[in-house]
């Protein structure tokens, strides 16, 4: 198992330690709306307003070797369970911080709301 903060494989993979972490926040309209607001504030600059990985900072991150993930596609680089998505948002992706850790600026409840919102992006595709 590769822990966050260590080098990650280039190919899509899962994180068994986080796969079974259950989302304690129901994906209600209120949760999804709260997640959308947080996504706009913290995530859209890189992932884009609709989650396609084309935010205004995406070209800059590509210069460092990685584009932001397209959150609307069928490939989830670090796993697709709620727990895996939660851990990526909260802990970030290292070792060179391909994605910042947002657990420093968002409490867990807010991160779960973002998870609930992100899961709707593929539906809107």
Describe this structure in words.
The chain has a domain at 26-43 and 73-124: Cytochrome Bc1 Complex, Chain D, domain 2 (Orthogonal Bundle). The chain contains six helices and no strands. 43% of the residues lie in helices and 0% in strands. By secondary structure, the chain is mainly alpha-helical. α2 packs across α6 (108-124) and α5 (82-91) packs across α6.
Question: TL;DR?
Answer:
Helices cover 43% and strands 0% of the residues.
What general form does the structure show? globular
What's the end-to-end separation, in Å?
A: 32 Å
Strand-residue proportion: under 5%
What's the pLDDT, averaged over the residues? Answer: 84
Order of helix and strand elements from N to C terminus: HHHHHH
Largest sheet: none
Task: Please write out the topology.
Elements: H1 16-19, H2 29-42, H3 44-47, H4 58-62, H5 82-91, H6 108-124
Helix pairs in contact: 2-6, 5-6
Features of the shown structure:
single chain, disordered N terminus, 0% strand, Cytochrome Bc1 Complex, Chain D, domain 2, 6 helices, mainly alpha, globular, 125 residues
């Amino acid at each position: 198992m590769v822990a966050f903060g260590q080098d990650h494989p280039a190919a899509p993979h899962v994180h068994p330690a986080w796969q079974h972490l259950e989302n304690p926040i129901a994906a209600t309209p209120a949760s999804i709306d709260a997640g959308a607001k947080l996504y706009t504030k913290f995530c859209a600059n890189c992932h884009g307003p609709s989650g396609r990985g084309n935010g205004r900072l995406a070209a800059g991150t590509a210069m460092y070797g990685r584009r932001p993930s397209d959150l609307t596609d069928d490939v989830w680089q670090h796993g697709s369970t709620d727990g895996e998505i939660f851990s990526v948002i909260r802990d970030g992706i290292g070792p060179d911080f391909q994605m910042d850790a947002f657990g420093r600026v968002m409490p867990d409840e807010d991160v779960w709301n973002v998870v609930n919102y992100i899961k709707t992006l593929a539906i809107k595709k």
